[in-house]
Specification:
Blueprint lengths: L9 E16 L6 E6 L3 E6 L8 E5 L4 E7 L2 E6 L3 E6 L4 E7 L5 E6 L5 E6 L4 E5 L5 H4 L7 E3 L14 E6 L5 E6 L3 E6 L5 E6 L4 E4 L5 E4 L3 E4 L5 E7 L12 E7 L4 E6 L7 E7 L6 E6 L3 E7 L4 E8 L3 E6 L5 E14 L2
Antiparallel strand pairs: 1-2, 1-28, 2-3, 3-4, 5-6, 6-7, 7-8, 9-10, 10-11, 11-12, 13-14, 14-15, 15-16, 17-18, 19-20, 20-21, 21-22, 23-24, 24-25, 25-26, 27-28
């Protein structure tokens, strides 16, 4: 499938929101999207409606930082450490349970919708089976399929670490996780065994002088369509670690060898690259994030060049992209935007 060119990118919708939206899930070809927000709530929104009015579905006990669609089941996670499973067809909560002992940072679904993975600051990635959207199906599930632990709880400077990022490969066979100090682990989904690792230490900054704490970390991951390359997003070294002033940074690895194959250190925007996605034909890689303001940046990985850098009026926390890569729905600080390609 040939992807549309980044040169054709244009904004088609822009909505203000009274909250920060940390996560979005949007079924391919659908006008409906699901949001996880800073007011502890999960919403459904209809982009085709005459007036954009997201409807509250249910709530967590803290920030909702991950939402994922596994078939017709919506799974959300938050700083309360809980995962909630919601039946989108029946319009009701199926199950809520304590999934992690610390803040959940991300929740994703496998491409076939049969698995969900969550990562949290307890430094664990847990993989969950999604057998059914009915309570009797969940009764057979109980514990997660895998508990993956390949990240240290403390940084080299003895600070508490965080586990920010997780992604599946396009075929669902691989899973990658990334932490605060720039360590990436690649896992075999079937066996739960570690099969590779990469290091992106530039994305971690420690400053003992100013505040005696650290900043940065890997905030996004994305496998190339063929599963051979792994893109890693974050930001470069920071001077004043009280601000997200590092340059938006992307590195690409041959994950089997652990060697970096491309580097985009950023020359225009500052802040974290919070989300990455490849075009279906691997002709480009797109990253989004920000600090005070936000951005969409497109990269030609094969030729190691930046194709387009677009400023957005919000710090972007997440986006959803269609299978054809012709629509990108971005969410972040007080805004929701939709861009079209092609």
């Amino acid at each position: 499938m040939k992807a549309p060119s980044p040169d054709t990118l244009k904004p088609v919708k822009d909505f203000s929101r009274p909250v920060i939206t940390f996560a979005v899930a949007r079924p391919d070809g659908s006008d409906t999207a699901y949001f996880g927000c800073s007011d502890f709530k999960v919403y459904a929104a209809d982009f085709a409606a005459a007036k954009f009015e997201p409807k509250e579905l249910y709530a967590h006990e803290s920030y909702v930082t991950g939402v994922a669609l596994a078939g017709k089941t919506l799974v959300s996670g938050g700083y309360d450490g809980k995962l909630t499973w919601f039946d989108t067809e029946g319009g009701k909560t199926i199950r809520t349970h304590d999934a992690h002992s610390k803040w959940i940072r991300k929740v994703i679904a496998s491409p076939d919708g049969k698995l969900v993975a969550s990562v949290a600051d307890d430094m664990a990635c847990r993989v969950w089976e999604v057998p059914s959207a009915r309570p009797e199906g969940f009764a057979k599930t109980g514990k997660p399929v895998h508990e993956l632990r390949g990240h240290k709880e403390k940084t080299p400077n003895d600070f508490v670490s965080m586990l920010y990022a997780v992604c599946f490969s396009a075929d669902g066979a691989l899973l990658a996780t990334g932490d605060k100090v720039g360590h990436v682990v690649v896992w075999d989904v079937k066996t739960g065994k570690e099969v590779g690792a990469c290091e992106a230490p530039v994305m971690y900054t420690w400053d003992k002088v100013q505040r005696n704490h650290s900043i940065g970390g890997i905030r996004s991951l994305a496998f190339s369509p063929d599963g051979k390359s792994l893109a890693v997003g974050g930001m470069g070294k920071v001077g004043n670690i009280d601000h997200l002033e590092g340059k938006a940074r992307v590195e690409v690895f041959d994950w089997k060898s652990g060697k970096q194959t491309a580097e985009f250190p950023g020359d225009k925007f500052v802040g974290l690259v919070n989300r990455l996605a490849w075009a279906p034909d691997a002709s480009w890689l797109v990253g989004a994030g920000g600090a005070g303001e936000g951005f969409l940046c497109f990269y030609d990985v094969a030729n190691k060049k930046t194709l387009r850098q677009e400023k957005l009026m919000m710090h972007v926390h997440d986006f959803a992209v269609t299978d054809a890569a012709d629509l990108i729905t971005c969410v972040g600080h007080n805004r929701v935007t939709v861009h079209k390609l092609g």
